[in-house]
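pipeline/complex-builder :: batch 7 item 3
reading input block
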Amino acid sequence: MIRLEKRPSPSRFWQYGTPVLAVVLTMIAGGVMFALLGKNPFEAIRTIFWDPLFHEQFASYSRPQLLVKAGPLILIAVGLSLGFRAGIWNIGAEGQYIMGAICGAGVGLALYPLENRLIFPAMILAGAFGGWAWAMIPAVLKTRFNTNEILVSLLLVYVAQNVLASMAIGLMRNPDGGGFPGSRNLAKFVSSANPELISGTGMHWGVVAAFMAVIAAQILFQRHLLGFQVKVTGQAPRAARFAGVIPARLIWLCMGISGALAGLAGLFEVTGPAGQISIDFNVGYGFTAIIVAFLGRLNPVGILLAGLLMALTYIGGELSQLMMGLPAAAIQAFQGMLLFFLLAVDLLTNFRIRFGAQREVG
Amino acid sequence: MTDRGELLKLSSITKAYPGVVANSDVSLRIGQGEIHALLGENGAGKSTLVKMIYGLVKPDQGRMEFMGRAFAPEEPRAARLAGVAMVFQHFSLFDALNVAENVALGMENPPPMKTLASRIKEVSTEYGLPLDPSRTVGDLSAGERQRVEIIRCLLQDPKLLIMDEPTSVLTPQEVEILFRTLRQLAAEGTSILYISHKLEEIRALCDAATILRRGKVVASCIPRESTAREMAELMVGATLTPPARKEGPKGKPVLEVKGLSVASPIPFGTSLKDITFTVAEGQVLGVAGVAGNGQDELLLALSGELRTAPGTVSLEGVDLGQMGPNARRAKGLVSAPEERLGHAAVPDMSLVENALLSGQVRKGLAKNGFIDWAKTRSFAEEIIASFDVRTPGTDVAARSLSGGTLQKFVVGRELLQNPGVIVINQPTWGVDAAAAAAIRQAILDRAANGAAVVFISQDLDELLEIADDFAALNEGRLSPVRPVKGLTIREIGLMMGGAHGMEVAHHAH
């Protein structure tokens, strides 16, 4: 008989061990799935995890993509982890990402064709503001009217998507674009562009911002009272009030920061890799970042690694579709397995598995 | 009462949970019509034992016999069918439903509402526990809620009635009414298993007692023929020394509460109504009251977790009403809420982090918002050393400590901050006797050094032992403050609300 026994204290080993175990289990289960699909499992796993970085033909294209894709995931996930640790569930980062991009791009487009070095910083501020403001809607509704921030933030994603579509075909449409939807290409103007900083790496300002966010969050959680208050609020809300935390203020802060970071991610995307506001500008970074945040144990460094891993499976997934003809659904299932196994083996942190019948004590 | 046929017999019952043996080789027999006390400290294994009789838990070893037949209830329903009924310490009633509806919910095949209502009236009057079946449970006092539970059991015609700490929610007057009912039941042949740690009650009520300590039967006795002290020492397994009280001179008033009224932030909580008292340097004010009469709210309003109108709470003339907990700590007021895990301490955090929780302001554990972990760790070590907190180290999670050990840590954390005012709610609840004595002594020592103490407790003996002055909370109102010297139990009972008008209901029918 297999039994679960609660550990007196959470296991430190498994706190770090479970993500690794989850990746290994995903590889095994995914391999079985690929084999059932009639593909060589070893080749598929290699194509997903190895070839994007080291394939002689494709790596030169796909390697920079790693940072391009990981950057926004990490930036958003770090912000989300702040709220998640405090038990504040911002599920609408995708909407905040869109609004950040729209606000930032709006500043750039409004000032076109002016060239000035201050334009890009102004766009960054506007981008952060857009995301912040969009996230404050569920925050204020929650503290004022006790609404559920999960629902409100999620539904605001769909509002944001409609605003985006309206902008792309209306207000922000490129006047010189021959009537096609989509704005001017911001990446083409020096003042509003977010270029690749080191050629061939995929590094742009958004990636820099992501790294800075990881470092700042690490310091916040390790050394700062605010990080401590966030953790206490998530684990024991009454103890947090006892420690002097004002719940409404913490909700505003966590929602605001996560919104601002998502907005920044959107701004850096619209000025760099995407280039323009278009109907299909958002590709789900805001939702995937939720997975990244949990895959990284809501720990800043963990999120950094998880973001890179998630980006890798995206790029590798595309590559395996191209090279091996794996169906896109199989790749999504593979990514889903990762989250599934992570949540499943998570209980090893707090529980210990015992084999055999219950031992008689005393 | 004369013919004591055997009703329940337990032989060598053992039950182990991971890490603890709750019951080890427990044997016990209860005769028909006998009121049998199960006596022991918190954690001695009383609850586990009765849960096995009631079918909630299965024993690992041992044998139970009920009315001469082997008895191994798979679930409470089976136990009820056999004739076992239980009144839990925590009621399982729906506040929004009325008495009859609540009773019906606990029955296997409830009769039509009308029949049930008249049955409730009949049975409740017969046993001196008058109850109006149409009243909403949310409006009933704790004593009346307990009646609902008891009536629910009595309607099943039980042969054995288990009562888990029934008097912890009653005033002395209400206890008297309950005892009359229990004696009547016993006289009619119903056996009662009465769980308690209140010794005088057991001496007044019970025919026999089994004393448990650390899961084992340490003694059986006839309560009427033993003294409370003998039973206490059997229960604790040590000789008890009452706390030493150094009489310090009472200084100037420190904490002043004037006309404090505030709505409860807790659903179905009790609002505080016009509370006024002062506490002086070196004075210990004991606040008694049946659970749920505003104790939690009073602590929240004094600690700062609940803001109140300006001028209602002041410390040495400074208005605290609108200040949060940390601002009040800075002024010298510390507090320790009743619930250790989740309120006074974060269960999954280490003792170091828990030392930071409330020690940050007065101990200067953070600078510009950045935490000084080295200083925090040495504060945690100081608490552990000076309060004899038995822990393998500072990095263990709070939840891995036993209740008493963690309570010593929590109390130590507050007392070591050199406070001017201490507000504490139920500091010895669920704590073993040795730790409880240490905690009381530490609080008295702080008072001797000039701290003003508000000591909220539901344990009257404890309050009478350590308080200088006494007041009681009743439905959110505080009685006038009286010196402890010269108070009688009857007076205390009246301060706690007497029988809460329950006898009046008796005459109404």
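note: Chain B touches chain A at residues 14, 16, 18-19, 21, 24, 60-61, 215, 303-305, 324-326, 329, 335, 337, 339, 341-349, 353, 356-358, 360-361, 366, 369-371, 373, 396-397, 399-400 (CB under 8 Å).
queue -> next item
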